Amino acid sequence: MFSNNRSSGARQKAFTLIELLVVIGTIALLMAIMLPALNRARAQTRTVVCLSNLRQLGLAFACYANDYDDYAMPLFEQPDTYWWGRKLSDGIDHTKGFIWPYLKSELKKESVYECPAQRYGSYGLQSKPGWVPDGPQWITSTYGYNGYYLSPPKSPWSQITYRPWQKITTVIKPAEVIAFADTLLDWDDTGENPDVENIALLDPPYKLSLDATEWGINGHPTTCFRHNNRANVVFVDGHCRPMKLEDGQYSSPEAKIGSITEYNAPYYVPDYQKWLKPKKRRKHGG
Fold first, then answer.
1. Domain span including residue 255
2. Which stretches in the chain have pLDDT values below 50?
3. What is the structure's pLDDT at 223?
4. Structural domain contains residue 74
5. How many domains does the structure of the chain reveal?
6. Spatial CA neighbour of 148 closest among 279, 59, 270, 58
7. Which of 9, 126, 144, 268 is the most exposed place for a label (fewest CB within 10 A)?
8. Residue 25 counted as domain residue
9. Contact at 8 Å (CB) between 52 and 60?
10. Ramachandran region of residue 118, left (φ > 0), alpha (ψ -120 to 50) or beta?
């Protein structure tokens, strides 16, 4: 009797161990099946939050125009002040930014200025001087403003300051012209070893030459397609949507940076043909 009980107990323990292994294997299998779905759900959540951020930026952009005779928000003014804030020796004063009165959110981790798919620490800091250590006091934004088209006289590019400062009520096809979009900048010209930093400027696929007589290919575009090969965008009319690369290819495939279209129109600079100045003829002789 005694030996039979020991044998029965041993069999029961062995059976329990097998059951445990089966349960562990089943859980592992379920996790393997569910993980891609969970990753997709997380990515979708980041996309939704990003679009919400852009809607708030678009609303602040419209509120600025409402207070300033419909003029679009400036991109830049001296002293060293941008739409997101003013660069100081020890960091950014976000309360000096043109958007601050209409969107009183600090420039910090996980703020409305930061795309949740491009967290602080995943990029270099565009505003930080090279000789100082990284720190959250140098955070600006991972969204770029289309000041190249919307506010040329209030921008850091001298060759475009002669262009008119846009009123949002007279923008050509405001449902197609970008106000803000997901952005990132890659300084690596090979596209193989990304050297990325955030950039709060939305650059067009082609930029104007210094004498404003021709458009040249922008070797470092800034639109970032970080949401499942989509870039989230808010347009001048206030609506938001994800945009894919319509033609061409990524200038930085690993960082998913490029331009929505190969050309400036319609999303970046819709009237770019009118920007060119006539080339000066060379004088002969003497």
1. 51-275
2. 1-2, 10, 286
3. 98
4. yes
5. 1
6. 270
7. 9
8. no
9. no
10. beta
Hey, what are 268's tokens? Answer: 């970046």
Domain presence at residue 17: no
Tokens of 63: 């509120």
Q: At 98, which amino acid appears?
A: F
Domain membership flag for residue 43: no
What pLDDT is attached to residue 104?
87
